[in-house]
Structure prediction request, 280 residues.
Amino acid sequence: MKELANWWQNLPYHMDPVLFQIGSFRVQYYGLMYIVAFGLTYALVVYRTRTETRFKISLDDINGLTTSMVLGLIIGARLGYVLFYNLDYYSQHPLQVILPFDPADGFAFTGIAGMSYHGGLIGVVIATYLYVRKSEFSIFTVGDLYAPAVPLGYTFGRLGNFINGELWGRATTSPIGMHFPLAPDEALRHPSQLYEAFFEGIFLFVVFWLLRKKIRRPEGVFLSLYLFGYGFVRFFIEFFRQPDTQLGFVFARFSMGQVLCGFMMLAAVALYFYLKNREA
Prediction:
């Protein structure tokens, strides 16, 4: 039993984030996980359009929507991180928002690190709105179609975070804790990436997938359910996740993620009542 506990607690030390490397070119599990997440979401959405007759959206539109959403996600997630989590730094190093090197340090490679879920969400909403403006379907129809499929992708995204050894949890005395090589100390820490992979991913996916045919009105209801469900789950998991070093707690004992999730849940409730009144 002791050997099993030791293996578990030191598991992050035995994981190599690089899948393979040829010369200076390398492929990391993190990027692969995102490809899997996008692919699964796309496959589930296509499956729904073929098995649920209420969605009158062509494959060409699914392709266009998905491409727009991915672009909106990447741009929004990056800008969201800059604005919500590290504005002071990037206001002094603006080129590093989009460039993977620091011109002030002999063009030293820095990579593009830092993505915000909430920024990505805003980017997806904007990209979807821009796409559907000239279409025969609404953003609420798209929300009902995509929302039940999206959470499964989070499972793989969070596993990518775990393999990368990033976004670790707060210190704990529980044997479920792990030692993370990039953490600032040797304390056991909650594997919050795995908590998120399960609850934001598998749990929400199962709930939404089982309800997708049972709750159909008002149009757009799954968009509001998704916003509230993710915000609720993420809010509580944040109690186990280490706040960003440069921010710490931004309001009382709440992290930036919790504050943004609070606004997310309020927006979900407001959206639901808007949709109800819209169909009344």
Strands lie at 18-22, 25-28, 101-102, 108-109. The mean pLDDT is 90. The radius of gyration is 20 Å. The longest helix spans residues 59-85.
